[in-house]
Task: structure prediction
Amino acid sequence: MENLALIDSFSEFKDDKQIDRVTLMAILEDVFRNALKKKYGSDDNFDIIVNPDKGDLEIWRNRVVVADGEVEDPNEEISLSEAQKIEPDFEIGEDVSEEVKLIDLGRRSILALRQNLISKIHEHDNTIIYKQFKDLEGEIYTAEVHHIRHRAVILLDDEGNEVILPKDKQIPSDFFRKGDNVRGIIESVDLKGNKPTIIMSRANPIFLEKLFEQEIPEVFDGLITVKNVVRIPGEKAKVAVDSYDDRIDPVGACVGMKGSRIHGIVRELGNENIDVINYTSNINLYITRALSPAKVTSIKINEDTKRAEVILRPEEVSKAIGRGGHNIRLAGQLTGYEIDVLREGAEEDVELREFSDEIEGWIIEEFHKIGLDTAKSVLEHDIKDLVKRTDLEEETILDVINILKEEFEE
Result:
């Protein structure tokens, strides 16, 4: 039969999980009406009866009987003699309903119908998938590694939906094999050419926040609130938590006995070092806690510039700055203040920016990145250590040290 391929199409899609019977009927009718418009110029006088369960349909064309020789629009009118071939007792002015066979549309039209139907069904499915995952943005999702590419890992979920985990959304220590289950948050969902692009992230701070919700019952129940999360993925994170119930110790509840509760989260994040601190609206205290494990001597706040000068004993400075400057950088991001570290008793020290006439700005910035903002803070460090921790050549560092030493020799 000419319409066999089309009927097969109905059978393919009638059991589609993404589409209900009413929607399928609407799509089928729309596809056939477009075909009728192309062939007859209009579909206004056609009735289409679709039965997706059985995989068949009926098309009826309604025309008015007119006298022989007076047919002006053959799509809407039929001559008396033609009408009487259908039923001998038809008279002028009466309505004639005549079934249009699919074969009458022609082989090419039937093939086009099938392609159009498949396209419409896929478009509908993609819209459903897009809406489904759009509602999941910011939520934890699990999918299986299907294919590993240079710049991304391609995952498939249980429904066969493709989820992309780009390289820059992974934790640096992440290593995946085909078949591995991967957890992350759905970071973004976009429609590109009617196909949804679903991006997962394991580096986003929200992933850590959602892991707290998932792994710590008091956070899930709302007894403890995660106020802010900042991360250097795979290296270090700081999480500020609060509780409106004075009987609950939010930090203790999140960390657990000997770190039992947070251990699973740390392992999921590639042994990322997680500092959990008590949130407070007292900014001095908040910055003090954020710089943990360093012990702060005093703080001077400038609300206008959102800067904080923190005084520490010399032995506490390296703790405040942290490896690679991670601790002080995250403390600044967590509190929203730019933090300058000063050593106790270093009133005669000079800020590096004062040497901008002799030392190039990008070199000063390299020292700032590792928390060295003053002349003495640079001079107190070993040259080899400075070479290791910055992107500066030893010769450049020696030039800087000579310039700084001259300041204090004068």
User: Anything to note?
Assistant: The longest helix spans residues 107-134.
